[in-house]
């Protein structure tokens, strides 16, 4: 066993306790604190933490095993990055059917978190692109899982946060595109009504859509932002392969640089530069899908205490009111969110048992960690989501209560029944395991 360094942190950097790494070959027995596969550390919270157990690093030696440029079917080890897949397939006219906000996640992580992109209203989650995968259990058995083979395990693994077994390899389908680059239509809207009044037509016409929100704007400007819709460009030209980041934040500054003062200035500039009327033009694929990948270590800008991300989903029927309530709640607590993103989740069903996306709208907020003050605000945001009949994203969380988890995922016991007994994460220990004793007590009382 070897001590873990900072490369095994989660992206939020709130908790950085020493852990120990284990080789996949050692994943052969149930241990008290369990094992957990670890990809590239882009989960924001503790779903990739196992601070008192062991992590199974998946990146070393990972490779793309096969790619058919005629069908667009690709097979790769779970530790391969999505950026590595894109670099191979783009010259052949293919792209990921679903890509999250960073290409620096592993294939296994994309499956385990059933990530979504800007086209959920068209194509659903990443799991829908997965044909099959091999899953290594702590019993030493390798199982091939697909919609037709070990289907229950297939569904539990997609969005299962790495708790059903170790994904070794996966086969996915890619989509053919005229160009990886994007024909983008962008415009600003003066308040939250401007977004909701436009989004039905925008999503009906475009493959992708996402809105940046000025979380600090108040009054009649509350919820103002910039809507960016897109489609793969018919004449977009050759796409540049993923390049090395152009900028870097080499160390964490002693204070949070993304504070109310700096964000107020940034938001005014970003909103002011956006076109008042829809403007269409071709933009590079990386700047549309993964703009922050151009800055190594951008999460360090939040300072030494790290950041919390709060991503919720709530029904479309009351989405305007819920969005306003969430923004106002953060404002009333004096918090400033750097990345505030609003998107629609469509009706395409997610294949995973524990998938986060469901029909409605999703709002993402990022906050520097200011201790108890931030935690109280996050709890208040949770209450708004629960009241709206919504859910919180577990893959980006590191503090939701067991009550919030159960309200978000009422079928979690089915997941617990499918969990490999040798696998555990700090997230599952903090949420599901806190509920399990009470559930066992209810069963005993009713016996």
From TrEMBL:
Q: Which UniProt keywords apply?
A: FAD, Flavoprotein
Show where the FAD-binding PCMH-type domain sits: 4-177
GO aspect biological process, one term: lactate catabolic process
Q: Which InterPro entries match?
A: FAD-bd_PCMH, FAD-bd_PCMH-like_sf, FAD-bd_PCMH_sub2, Oxid_FAD_bind_N
Q: Which Pfam families match?
A: FAD_binding_4
Give GO terms: molecular function aspect only. Answer: D-lactate dehydrogenase (cytochrome) activity; D-lactate dehydrogenase (NAD+) activity; FAD binding
Family label: Belongs to the FAD-binding oxidoreductase/transferase type 4 family.
Q: By what name is this protein known? A: FAD/FMN-containing dehydrogenase
């Amino acid at each position: 066993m070897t001590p873990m360094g900072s490369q095994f942190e989660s992206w939020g950097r709130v908790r950085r306790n020493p852990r120990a790494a284990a080789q996949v070959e050692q994943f052969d027995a149930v241990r008290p604190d369990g094992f957990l596969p670890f990809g590239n550390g882009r989960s924001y919270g503790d779903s990739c933490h196992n601070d008192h157990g062991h992590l199974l690093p998946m990146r070393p030696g990972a490779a793309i095993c096969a790619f058919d440029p005629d069908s667009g079917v690709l097979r790769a080890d779970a530790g391969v990055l999505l950026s590595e897949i894109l670099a191979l397939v783009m010259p052949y006219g293919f792209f990921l059917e679903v890509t999250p906000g960073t290409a620096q996640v592993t294939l296994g992580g994309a499956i385990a978190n059933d990530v979504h992109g800007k086209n959920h209203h068209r194509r659903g989650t990443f799991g829908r692109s997965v044909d099959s995968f091999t899953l290594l259990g702590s019993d030493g058995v390798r199982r091939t899982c697909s919609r037709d083979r070990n289907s229950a395990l297939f569904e539990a693994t997609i969005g299962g946060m790495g708790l059903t077994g170790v994904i070794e390899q996966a086969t996915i389908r890619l989509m053919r595109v005229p160009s990886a680059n994007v024909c983008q239509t962008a415009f600003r809207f003066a308040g939250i009504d401007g977004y909701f009044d436009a989004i039905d037509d925008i999503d009906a016409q475009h493959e992708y859509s996402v809105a940046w929100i000025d979380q600090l704007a108040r009054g009649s400007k509350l919820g103002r932002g910039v809507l960016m819709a897109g489609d793969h460009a018919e004449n977009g030209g050759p796409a540049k392969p993923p390049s090395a980041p152009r900028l870097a934040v080499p160390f964490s500054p002693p204070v949070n640089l993304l504070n109310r003062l700096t964000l107020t200035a940034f938001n005014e500039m970003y909103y002011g530069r956006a076109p008042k009327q829809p403007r269409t033009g071709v933009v590079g694929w990386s700047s549309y899908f993964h703009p922050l990948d151009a800055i190594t270590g951008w999460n360090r800008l939040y300072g030494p205490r790290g950041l919390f991300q709060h991503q919720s989903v709530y029904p479309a029927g009351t989405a305007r009111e819920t969005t306003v309530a969430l923004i106002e709640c953060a404002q009333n607590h004096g918090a400033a969110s750097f990345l505030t993103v609003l998107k629609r989740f469509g009706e395409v069903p997610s294949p995973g048992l524990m998938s986060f996306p469901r029909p409605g709208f999703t709002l993402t907020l990022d906050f520097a960690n200011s201790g108890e003050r931030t935690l109280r605000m996050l709890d208040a945001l949770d209450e708004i989501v629960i009241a709206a009949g919504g859910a919180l994203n577990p893959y980006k969380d590191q503090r939701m209560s067991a009550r919030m988890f159960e309200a978000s995922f009422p079928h979690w016991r089915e997941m617990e029944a499918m969990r490999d007994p040798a696998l555990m994460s700090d997230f599952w220990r903090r949420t599901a395991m806190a509920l399990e004793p009470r559930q066992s007590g209810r069963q005993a009382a009713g016996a």
